[in-house]
Structure formats: C-alpha cells, structure tokens
C-alpha cells in the first residue's frame, strides 16, 4: 500500500503536529523549497506513529528524521545523532504510554535487523507546545538552520 | 515465566504502594493500593489525563460532523466512534444502511480489530509473560514472532487505509456510508496479505498458548452485543451471561455513570451497583457459537474452552478474534460487489437516536438528540474502559489480596500486568497509569 523508498533515495521523515506550535517544526522543515528541491529525496510526514516509520524505513538506504525534542536545554538547541551507531537518549522525548516512539522503534528495528544503512536524527528543542500553527521565532531560526544542514549533508552524499 | 504464588512475609505491616505511571496501556493514569496488616483496604485506579469534554463540544454542531469529531477521541479505535455516531444519527433520521455499504463498514471494522488486537497482544501484553521490559526484548529472543506480528498489524492498517483514506482517524466515512467506495479490484489487492496473515494469526495463537498463565478466575457478568446472524461487531442486542437482554436504546436503563474523586473519567456500572466486563472475553463467551470453524478449532487447540473467565487468557481470545477478523475480511472481499452509490442521503429531523458497536475493548455507546435542522442538542458517549474501570478495580482487589506477600516491586509489576489484561484505553475514557501501594 505504501510507496517504498529505494536504497538510492533518502527518506526524510518529518514528525509533528501543525496545530501545536513548535511540535510542528518537523513538518515545517519538510515543506521548505530547499528541501523539496533536493535530488533523490522522499519526504514523509508522520504524526509520531513509530510503526509506520519502521515500515517506511526498512527498505531505505539513508533516513533522516526531524522532530521537536524536550530535554530542558535552551529553546532552539539543535541535536544531531547518528542513530545507527549510538542509541538515542530516551530522555529528550516526551513520555508516551500508548505510542511506540522513535527510540523504541529504532531499538526494535535494530533487534529485528530492519534498520536502514544510515539513520540520522535531528532534534530541535521546542519552546512552546500550545495551540497555534506558528513556530516560536527562535525555533523557526533553528529549523531553518537544520534545513541548511540537511541540504549540505545530502549534497555531500549526492 | 514468573511465579505468582503469594508469600507470607510482610503481612503485619501497613503501607501504600504507588505506580505513578502505568506503562504499555493506552493513555495516562496510575494505581494506588492501601494495605493494612496484610488486608487490602483500598484500590484506586487513578485516571488523571484531563477530561476532554467531547460531549459538550458536540452541542451546537451539525449532526453530520459527529462521526469525524468523535473519531478524535481515540487513535486506536476511531471506527468505533465514527460508526456509533453514524448509527445513532441514522436512526434519528430513519435511515438504515444495509447491503454492501453495511458490509464495507464491517470490513473496515475488522481492520480496526486487527491493528488494535495485534498491537496489544504483541507490543504491550506478550512481554509480560517473559519478564521482558518491552517488545524490544521479546524481539531479541523471538524476532520472527515479532516480525510476523508487525506484518499482521500492517495488514489491518491497510484495510483501514484503503477504505478510510488513512489508518488513524479515517476520513472517508460519513453518515449513510462512505464518500467513496473501493473498486472490486482495489479491494482484491488486499487478499494476499490477508490470507498470509490469517495463517500467521493461527501460528501466533499456537505460540501464545504455550505461555504460563496465572490461575485466576472471576465470576464476571460479561456484557456484549449479540446479533442473530453474525459475531456481533456493528450492532445487536445488549446481552449478558446473567440475564441482561436489552435493545441498544435501553442502554441507559442498564448502565449508569458517576463521578468519583480519584478519576477524571466517569465510572460506569450496572444500575444495580454491580460491575460488568466488556471486550474480547465478553464477546467470546456470549457469541462463541458464531465464530468460524477455524477460529473455534484454533481456540480449542490453544487450550481455551467455549467459556473463559481468566483475564490473563484474554491475550488468547484477542488472537482468536484476530483469526476471525482476517477470515471475515477475506470473505467480505471475495464476495464484494460495488454498490450503486457510496452513501444513502441522510436528511435531518428532530429526535433522539442510539448507536453501539463492538470496539476492540468492548461496547462503545452513543446517544444524540438533534433538532429539525440537524443541530446537536445533547450527546452521551460511553467508552468501554469507562465501564471496565470498576471491574478492573474489583479484580485488582482480589489479585492483590491473594498475592499480598509479594515484595512491593513484584506486586507493582503484577498489578501493571493485570491491568494490561484489559487493554484499558484511558485516552478514550477521559481518560492512564501511576502505582501507589500504601501498607501500614
């Protein structure tokens, strides 16, 4: 049913909710023209359902995930993790009792041998998670910086 | 596999044990146990997720909006809300959805049962039987079992996506039917995975049947919908093993809700003050004869009788229902004929209507009153976990008393495990879990 990502493509998984302020930053990044214009990229928006993410990345070569995080660091702080070689720190994600989240899905995929060759996680510390469609200025600035980082990273790959 | 026998130590102390956040359940809540001199004095299933006021925000809205608004109550069982609301509105307006449109509703519901039951059985419940912290540990020991579970769940999701537009909060259902119905050939693309998954579900049930199940039975009043022609999903009568036999529009005569101080979710119980249990065990016990031969045969092979009152075995019953759901999905698709129209027109008229369907966790009840323009004047929605909460507390009381000598850590784990048997959906009932044990 789902469109598959070929190993030659990069799958960008943008996680978030448009209506909860900085939680929408992953979606914002995936919608930027500079990202959409990248060669060999497939963009997948996801509301945080880890199972759907696992299914999407199992055939992919390179996967980049972008999402808001909540670690207590200053708003706008950018995190970049190589999730293949290092487990993601669970304490930067909001606690969820009924969704299988990103760290769990990566660990489950690792146990099942379903990880892609390369899996990069970009997280940005959010400031506000209220009810609005606007990103906080400092978070938007960080999101734009991540857009540039992804573009540079993928240009280097291609 | 864990020994659950009670130990006699520490029975002369009193204390409170607390589980602040119950893991691997749907939503957020906690549990507080008070034990004095080895006697359980209080059990409180605390639901602290904020109330969401869906019933209030429906008032003043157009009757056609109810299915989509109420589906937002739960990402795991949106179909239960969409169809409960639709049935109630259609009843008010004198519309009966039958034939292939009704059959397509049953098909999308099988998708919901499959994804919900497989998620619960393997991701949330099965790790308990291995003293494993999560499915990640289970996957290290039994990778093929977990891979197969993920594939089965995806087959359920695919039914939801094809018929509903997406697996969470589908957008293609409406009063009177659907916005768009699938072509015969589109539905048939699902068949290969459904057939593979049916056999995988049979194999999975055999695997689960080897688990070590605690010996715990209760004298439940099981309440489920029962339909003369089919294993009830979309409707029927409210039937219990202890004498209830009522039409859906008599639901309020049978069950009542009340606020209790320790929960933001309403507690629903029988009007005579008793508790009842909804969900897979209830459906299995009330409607066993209507399961398919394969589902019955696999149930017997797994050690289930035609009646089961051990909540720890609910994982087996969920997988029997998964087998049934795959068979039903296969049967529906093989016999599908495209309907002339995707929906029947539903024109508003003043009145009160009732709808109830079998959500994965049990009967999900809706009642609405609308005016001549279709404006919603009043609504009542009862999620199955609202009804099951008081029964869970009763079971925990008995379980903790029987195992009161366990260390606090073991008792906490046992309680969490027991709660997971019921697959409570706290998101729906507020709506969960912290454990607090007080011994003095």
Describe this structure in words.
The complex is a heterodimer of chains A (158) and B (440). Chain A is of the alpha/beta class and 158 residues long. Helix content of chain A is 32%, strand content 21%. Chain A has five helices and five strands, in the order βααβαββαβα. Chain A has a five-stranded mixed sheet, sandwiched between helices. Chain B has one domain: Cytochrome-c3 Hydrogenase, chain B, CATH 1.10.645.10. Helices cover 42% and strands 18% of the residues of chain B. Chain B contains 15 helices and 14 strands. The N terminus of chain B is likely disordered. The interface between A and B is medium-sized, with 18 and 31 residues.
**Secondary structure: helix percent of chain B:** 40-55%
Give the amount of beta strand of chain B, in percent: 15-25%
DSSP strand tally of chain A: 5
Highest CATH level, the class of chain A: Alpha Beta
Q: What is the chains' assembly state?
A: heterodimer
Give a quick rundown of the structure:
Chain A is of the alpha/beta class and 158 residues long. Helices cover 32% and strands 21% of the residues of chain A. The model of chain A has no long low-confidence stretch (mean pLDDT 85).
Keywords, please?
heterodimer; A: 158 residues; alpha/beta; Rossmann fold; 5-stranded mixed beta sheet; 5 helices; 32% helix; 21% strand; B: 440 residues; alpha+beta; Cytochrome-c3 Hydrogenase, chain B; 4-stranded mixed beta sheet; 3-stranded antiparallel beta sheet; 18% strand; globular; disordered N terminus
Write the layout of secondary structure elements.
The complex is a heterodimer of chains A (158) and B (440).
Chain A: E1 10-15, H1 25-30, H2 33-36, E2 41-46, H3 50-57, E3 62-69, E4 78-82, H4 102-112, E5 118-125, H5 137-157
Helix pairs in contact in A: 3-4
Chain B: E1 14-19, E2 29-36, E3 39-47, H1 54-58, H2 66-71, H3 78-92, H4 99-125, H5 135-141, H6 143-164, E4 173-174, E5 177-178, H7 184-188, H8 191-208, E6 223-226, E7 237-240, E8 245-246, H9 251-254, E9 255-260, E10 263-270, H10 280-287, H11 293-301, H12 314-334, E11 351-359, E12 362-370, E13 376-382, H13 384-402, H14 408-420, H15 426-429, E14 435-439
Parallel strand pairs in B: 2-14
Antiparallel strand pairs in B: 1-14, 2-3, 4-5, 6-7, 7-8, 9-10, 11-12, 12-13
Helix pairs in contact in B: 3-4, 4-6, 4-12, 5-6, 6-8, 8-12, 11-12, 13-14
